[in-house]
Amino acid sequence: MNPLLTIVLLATLLITALVKAQPSYEGPHPNLAVVEDPTLRRTQYNERVQEVIQWRANIVERGDSEKMDLASVSANLRLGRKLDACSDRVIEMMETPGSGPFWMLPTVCVAFTGRDLLSEEAKNAIRDAWRLTYQLRGDTENHFAMYYSMLYLMSEMYPNESGDQWYTGKSSEENLAESRAYLIDWMDIMTTIGQGEFNPTHYIGEYAIPMLYLFAWAKDPEMRIRGKMVLDWLYAGLAANTINGVLRGPNARTDDSSVVERWNSLSSFFSWLNFGNCPPTRGFSWGNYYAIVADNYEVPEVIYRIATDRDIPFEQRDLKRSRHQWRYSDVGKAPIYKTSYTTSEYAVGSYQGGMADPIQTHVWDVTWKTPDPRGIHPTMFSIHPYSASKGMQAYFNVGPDTMVKAVAAEGKPSYDVADKLVGCSPYEQVFQDLDTVIALYDIPEGTRFEQVNGFFSKDLSNLTEDASGWIFAQGGSCYLAYLPLAKYEWEPHMAYQRLPSASNGYRYERVPTGSHVLISPHRRNGTILQAASVSEFASYKAFQKAVKSLPLEIELTPVPSVSMRSLRGTEIVCTFGKDPLRDGKRVDYSKWKLFEGPYLNAEKNSRKLEITHRRLKRTLDFNTLTISDTVIKEP
């Protein structure tokens, strides 16, 4: 047989198999063995990329949709097929263009993937949409990252055009200058005082995709290298904050489902794609747009190793920042001090409490490892369900009378609900020492919800409400001890299930999940959480005995205060409104570095990150825009 025909036949068989195969998000859990051979690792990565492209290209054939969307148009263009149908569909969709970053990004994907494949009429339809349709910039960090990256790329694609050819009213060169200036300023902030939307469960895609597009499509070599360096920066953080690919808290942005079913977020797609150690998100979600040019990028081996082959336990401390505060504060971007402690069986993470983002922040949790994370609630935490127009006004530049209702109407239904599990509060203060967490709450009288909510998973075993006040449970191979500092009651955990709607709005019904929420309706309150590995104790009773024997003093008035010895022997004193004491010494947050741990290290204001795994080291230096790889000499 002709060798060329053989290659074509094999490619056809592969495509057919991929189309008919069970998608990875429904298939067996990935093999967690470290792939030592870089060539094999790359081959497997390319297979995952190809699976996503093939899957999205065939949404019409599978009956998932009557017509192609922009993701499936891009996928078919990437495969070089259905070119006439793709052009016709683009023309049709450009008749009613959208506005804002979530329309701009898919359209840029189509424009660049199809620049040599779409008909002139289709390309002109895209160009007219960018000329005639005003694009809203949005009001969050991820909106701005997408908006300016997409405007930058389109302005490069159509250089030397006057302002009347752009919705902005500015020339191509002016658009480029504005976009470039914002993106560089954002990178400077991220690499000096930290990212605002840190450790995001879903919004990692809204950063990774624009950066990949810059790396793949920008003409300016400086913007290409910047895109690649930010990708490495993002994925290094993802690798260090996951257990078998599952991202755990704290998170500046998450949602009602991902905060309990920790796997169920877009971050899992990126773990699957880059590390192969986690099932991807159902339907691949926003990652469909990433896959189109994902073969341009390869995660560095040092980052792959951090995700899949690390020494444990380890502690990582990071400096992040709050969303920008426009009102009621003398500080624009407040520092966020993030702590993470990871073992082979569980991880504990937190930041110091207070406001990071007014809507979707997750402050602290313990999350344990599971054989397969899909459908599992492998986490425990508590929050104050803060809801206030003033809290919104501090961070949003909108009218004060509509914001709370508008948030719920825009797909964040739990914000103004008493039993919610997502959000931060100015009345919460948290301290973590390894696998011990003390969360204190001092809620002023008259606050909308005067209670603390604790999440207890349906997947816990051996739940015991002890006479001492401690609540004991086991999650996987992790023992858990949870002490509420005030009386409580139990309520079923209710999830938000989206209903079909005839309009563009959001409609939900609440359905029980089998998990429960501990409701403690007291203003002066707190939670103590102690985790430990099952392997550390002879029995479950031995763990309970050890926890109950820990020296512990609790005061709730005039403000909540805890003095205790942790299971690790640390003497901790926490009083609401004061800096915590560890072994008699005040915790000095002013000395916090941008990153500090065995894998990620960077000084504040340095613009330089060192990523290390055993003898491998990669340095990202935004001062010189260089990436350097070294092998550390053995001692």
Features:
alpha+beta; 635 residues; 26 strands; 9-stranded antiparallel β-sheet; 17 helices; single chain
Tell me the layout of helices and strands:
Blueprint: H1 3-20, H2 38-57, H3 59-62, H4 70-79, H5 83-94, H6 101-113, H7 120-132, H8 141-157, H9 172-190, H10 204-217, H11 221-240, E1 242-243, E2 246-247, H12 266-275, H13 287-291, H14 301-308, E3 314-321, E4 335-342, E5 346-351, E6 364-368, E7 379-383, H15 389-393, H16 403-409, E8 428-433, E9 436-442, E10 452-456, E11 461-465, E12 471-475, E13 478-484, E14 489-499, E15 507-520, E16 524-533, H17 540-548, E17 552-555, E18 561-565, E19 571-575, E20 581-582, E21 585-586, E22 595-596, E23 600-601, E24 608-613, E25 616-621, E26 626-631
Antiparallel strand pairs: 1-2, 3-4, 3-22, 4-5, 5-6, 6-7, 7-10, 8-9, 9-16, 10-15, 11-12, 12-13, 13-16, 14-15, 17-18, 18-19, 19-20, 20-21, 23-24, 24-25, 25-26
Helix pairs in contact: 2-4, 4-5, 4-6, 5-7, 6-8, 8-9, 8-10, 10-11, 11-14
Tell me about this structure.
The chain has 635 residues and is α+β, with helices and mostly antiparallel strands. Among the domains are: 238 residues, no CATH class; 32 residues, no CATH class. 32% of the residues lie in helices and 23% in strands. It contains 17 helices and 26 strands. The protein has a nine-stranded antiparallel sheet, with no helix packed on it. Strands 8-9-16-13-12-11 form a six-stranded antiparallel sheet, covered by helices on one side. Strand 1 and strand 2 form a beta hairpin. The relative contact order is 0.09. The N terminus is likely disordered.
